[in-house]
Design goal:
The protein is built from 25 helices and two strands. By secondary structure, it is mainly α.
């Protein structure tokens, strides 16, 4: 939608520029280059002494620095930067091509891909909408219950789906609720029939405008946000984000709460967000003899932690806009939505359809397969096979194939082939294949850090941190990572930092999990800026928020989150992962002694 306008504007500008060139003499001298162009040209030149050094560790550092700068500045697309190891490592004699290439199709990458495919199925059948309205119908329609209910839905969905996908799917629903509140305030007698309805569609019609796992552009989001035609008219001289009525403050609370809940829910499961997948792949690469951190073990540790952060986030968001100086202002005066309106929206969806039930059953089976593959408490179904014979990616791929086979309507065996399936390949064309390349580039870097000995060298240089107590060290490292994630991709930050954290832990004779797990989770605590995470950018695009709104709530959440992560790892985490602070694991020795 926005692309046509932009293209037309570019065409008009181009015509006017051509007319000016006819009348004005051509300028001589160096052409003007953008910042990204200077980055593309200057970085390889400045880093060439490192990349062409006789020391292999310096060559790895040169390539890593180049990728980090290009990732941070987005001089070229992030997945394109991730392709650099495929040719730089062989050409600079760091690793052979046969050693580098397998990093781009690891088991953990397939696990992430499977999660995206399942998310696409959930979105396609509209299961997320029914879940959201069901929760709203159960928890109630007072402002606090609406906020808590939507945060719970976003948190629950983002465990199993991309947090970006969850936020994209929930934002239109949240906008509808906000408009309902505005309409109730403008006209207390507003009939439910005046509200925008959630349309029930047949499986053949259910092709959403936005694939949940596609890379999000702000102009794309405009199409998925309902028009603001309801509620009190805004002052034409004041932007929506500058309105300070209680209703507008409640709208900000809903937007902030949903975005933050998506980020918090993402780190609760091993597949919920990119940094967790990066950790899983790099940990197995750096420490091949270490016990596997399975989906079930991660869930046992991270879900209680995630829920605790969610509760704190709820209260922080609930008080947002109500604190003036050191005083807490009275509760927001927001009209209550009639429960009848929510029931009408649910009624419009109709009874649970065949495709919804099928996807729900498949999703339930997937969760069971993940949790009970290796539960540790008792032998799981994975114990039937040899060690490392099956993994979490095995389970998700079983479900993915089933989603391509199962019918989207009640089967009629006479014309089975004519019945549409839950998923088809058209649904896969918008999957973020670039993220798989991004993960592969990170795994290739981690492998180079280990094979060149750079991880060990970095650890030796970080001996100066040894006097710091472990809790203070963890808090400082997590705080630095969280601040870095506010400005750069969380996947690239995690990719670069994990080898450093593992090397530091080996040097200080700590179990590497003590630093790597808090560092990984800290990459998901980016609450301050719209550019920090896609969920932040998505709710910012609604026009209801200013950067100051997000920063004021986010900076406190960042600090509280870092402290909670460190304390949880040093207490509950020791039990879950079987960590003994008085001993150094044999699998972390160089070389491993077990």
């Amino acid at each position: 939608m926005g692309l046509d306008v932009v293209a037309e504007g570019h065409a008009t500008t181009r015509v006017s520029e051509d007319a000016d060139l006819i009348q004005q003499p051509q300028r001589t001298g160096f052409p003007k280059l953008s910042k990204s162009s200077w980055t593309l040209i200057a970085c390889p030149i400045l880093l060439s002494p490192l990349m062409f050094s006789s020391n292999v560790q310096l060559r790895v550092m040169g390539v890593t620095a180049l990728m980090a700068i290009w990732w941070a500045t987005e001089a070229i697309p992030l997945p394109a930067t991730a392709l650099l190891p495929l040719f730089l490592f062989p050409l600079l004699v760091i690793s052979s091509a046969k050693q580098v290439a397998p990093n781009y199709c690891k088991d953990t990458s397939m696990l992430f891909l499977g999660g995206f495919i399942v998310a696409a199925a959930i979105e396609k059948v509209g299961l997320h909408t029914r879940i959201a309205l069901k929760v709203l119908n159960v928890v109630g329609t007072t402002p606090d219950r609406i906020l808590g209910g939507f945060m719970m839905v976003c948190w629950s969905l983002s465990m199993w789906m991309s947090n970006t996908a969850t936020c994209v799917m929930m934002t239109p629903i949240i906008e509808t609720i906000i408009q309902s509140v505005e309409a109730a305030d403008a006209d207390p007698g507003c009939s439910p029939t005046n509200l925008r309805r959630v349309e029930a569609k047949t499986p053949s019609e259910r092709h959403s405008e936005h694939n949940p796992v596609a890379q999000i552009e702000l102009h794309d989001l405009e199409e998925s946000i309902p028009d603001r035609t309801l509620g009190p008219p805004a002052d034409p001289g004041v932007l929506l984000c500058d309105q300070n009525t209680d209703i507008h403050k409640f709208g900000r609370q809903l937007c902030l709460g949903s975005a933050y809940a998506c980020s918090v829910g993402g780190f609760a499961t091993l597949t919920g967000t990119g940094p967790n997948i990066v950790f899983s792949g790099q940990f197995s690469t750096l420490f091949p003899k270490a016990p596997e951190v399975s989906f079930g073990i991660w869930l046992v540790f991270a879900m209680p932690l995630s829920f605790a952060v969610l509760v704190i986030t709820f209260f922080m968001v609930r008080f947002h806009g109500r604190i003036s100086g050191c005083k807490l202002m009275p509760r927001l005066d927001v009209p209550t939505i009639s429960p009848h309106e929510v029931r009408n929206l649910l009624r419009d969806l109709g009874p649970v359809r065949w495709d919804e039930a099928t996807v729900l059953i498949c999703f339930g089976c997937l969760v069971v397969l993940w949790i009970f593959r290796q539960p540790e408490v008792f032998p799981g179904w994975g114990s039937v096979y040899d060690k490392n014979q099956v993994s979490d990616s095995t389970a998700v791929m079983i479900i993915c194939v089933l989603l391509f086979l199962l019918p989207a309507e009640r089967p009629r065996f006479a014309d089975y082939n004519a019945i549409p399936k839950i998923l088809n390949w058209e649904d896969m064309k918008k999957l973020p294949w670039g993220i798989l390349l991004l993960l592969g580039g990170g795994f290739a870097l981690a492998d180079a850090f280990k094979s060149s000995g750079l991880s060990e060298s970095i650890g030796d240089k970080l001996n100066v941190l040894q006097p710091l107590p472990l809790p203070l060290l963890m808090i400082c490292l997590c705080a630095c990572i969280t601040m870095a994630t506010e400005l750069t991709s969380n996947i690239s930050t995690c990719t670069i930092m994990l080898p450093v954290l593992s090397a530091l832990a080996q040097t200080l004779r700590f179990n590497p999990l003590l630093l790597m797990i808090p560092g990984t989770i800290s990459c998901s605590l980016a609450f301050m800026l719209p550019v920090a995470t896609p969920p932040n950018a998505i709710v910012f695009a609604t026009g209801r928020l200013k950067v100051s709104h997000m920063a004021s709530a986010g900076v406190i959440l960042n600090f509280i989150g870092v402290v909670i992560i460190a304390l949880t790892m040093l207490t509950y985490g020791l039990v879950v992962f079987g960590i003994d602070l008085s001993s150094f694991p044999c699998w972390a020795e160089e070389p491993p002694k077990c």
